Each structure stands twice: as C-alpha cells, then as structure tokens.
Amino acid sequence: MKFLSDLRLKLTKNGFQAYRANQVFKDLFKKGIDDYNEMTTLPADVKELLGKNMPIFSIHPVQENKSSDGATNKILFKLSDDSLIEAVLMKFNDGRNTVCVSSQVGCAMNCKFCATGTLSFTRNLTYEEIADQVLYFSLILNKTGERINHVVYMGMGEPFMNYDEMSKSINMLRDSVALNIGSRNITVSTCGIIPGIKKFSKEFDQVNLAISLHAPSDEIRNEIMPISKKYPLDQLMKTCEDYIQTTHRRITFEYVMLAGINDSEKNAYELASLLRGMLCLVNIIPYNETSIKNIKGSDKKKINKFKNVLLSNHIQVTVRVSLGQDINAACGQLAGKK
Ligand code: SF4
Fold it and tell me: How far is the CA of 259 from the centre of ligand 1 (A)?
C-alpha cells in the first residue's frame, strides 16, 4: 500500500474527493479489509480506479512454511517482476509479534555464512514492497485480535544499501493512520555500512540500530564478511561511538556463533576488550544451519562459555531464542531453494 498522501493525490487528480483515501486507510488498517470491492463505504467508480491503478499489495505470497509449534511463519513472496523475497513472523512467548523484513532481492555483501549472500544481488525493494511484508502479517493477526508490534530489518539484503526506500518504509510503518508501529519497536540491522550509520543517527535517532559484527578482529571479519575490507573495525567502532554520542541510544551487536571460526574463548576476550565501556548489548546468535559447506554452528557449551566471558567483563549479553529451525528460517534459504 502507498502513503495516504499518494492515494489522495490519485483520487483528486481523477476528480474524486480526498477523504475517500481516509476511508480506504480506515477499512484496511483498522478493520483489516484488504479488497477494495469489500469496502462498502466506497462508490463503484472509486473501487474501479483504485483496483486498476493502486493495488493494495505490491507483493504476493507463493509459499508458506509454518514451524511445527506455530511460533514461526515464513512466507516467500513474488514481486511484480517475478523476483522472490522472504519475510518471517515470529511470535514470542512474551507477547512480541515480530516481522523480519527483506530490503533487497538477494544481497551484494556476500557474507560467507549467509544463505542470501550466496544469491546474487538483483535489485532494491521499493518502500511499498518492504512495508507490505508487515501489512501481510498484520492482516493475518488482525483476524485474531492481535497485532504486529515489532519489526526488524534483518531479512534478505543490506538495508543501508537501499537507504532511501528503507527510510520511506520506516515512515510508512510508523504512520499512525497506517501500521502505527513505534520507532523504538523497529530495528534496522546493518553489516557495518559506515555512511548509512552516520545518516541514520541523524534521521532516525529513535529507531534501534543493530550491527552485524560477528567477529572481534579484522582478520576474522575479513574472512567471513568481505565488507569489512572497505569499512575496517577501527573505523566502524569510531562510528558507533559517534552514533551513541548523537543519539544516546544503545547499539546491539549481533554475533553469530560459527564453530571454529569466531567462537573461542580468546575471541570472547577480544570482543570484550573491543566493546569495553561502550553503551551496547551483544546478542549472541546460535547459527541456523544452511546448506553452506564448511560452516557449522557452535554447540551450547561453547555458546555458554563465550557468554560467560562477556558477562564477567561487564558486557551486557543475550542469547537469541532460536526459532524456526524446522522451516529454514535463516534468511535466503527459501528463495535460494526456489
Ligand atoms: S548477512 Fe545480511 S548483509 Fe550479509 S549477505 Fe546476508 S543479507 Fe547480506
């Protein structure tokens, strides 16, 4: 769905009154009606104009994978040019209903542990294609009186390589007449695109920032995340310090545990020393195994040891609850299979 202002413009240009756009938004976002023909307040000619020119959805589901416990639902969507993207709904026990959205078709960053990284980059998503992933799940939950209350930009693609459309999609998600999701319930995750972090700190200081760090040194990071050759750790850390000073917000550092690559006790001490004194949280992520050869996840014992080293060095740590292992929930796995 486009912005309310776009809908109004379309209607007034075609001789209809602007308030019809408000009726559409009310029916769609408040009542969960996703078909113009079922919006009883609209006259037939408005339904026809909008149906032909402004379809509600820019994306269409082609495959659904629900986990056996029902907590995770991953949808493969087809776009107008037949490209495929994925989005996942995760329902946590604490009441969070989180959608993980994609921001690009494929990804050019080529992180070695990531299924999306093995798909080549095709194109950026429009803001509508990003926001519609949330709208899709929101309409499903609407039927049971629930709502989406968190959104994370952690699906396919690097959001800061699609900065303008990502920004517009955040504005659409936050719009009180649309999905009405609070800024502090939205998290954008980047692999460390420094110009994007700088811009984001000024334009979205209330939206959460997560950095996919995944290594405590350039040596390891260069091996698994080629982008770090362009934006090495010392520059990235300096940018993070500046971000905290500008926004007074905590940064989450994502750290995926890869057996024999970044999960030793020594790595944990290196990470603790890299982050010492910084307003941050380390989110340790057990690796959702993919078909990528030579990359395996660390076992529970290793993860616990790693966590304890960070804790003993006064670094805040969480270990991500791992959902959706039975549905290939790691990003890019479904699209890759197709
Ligand atoms: S981890 Fe993120 S940035 Fe890296 S290849 Fe995958 S989608 Fe792209």
Answer: 19
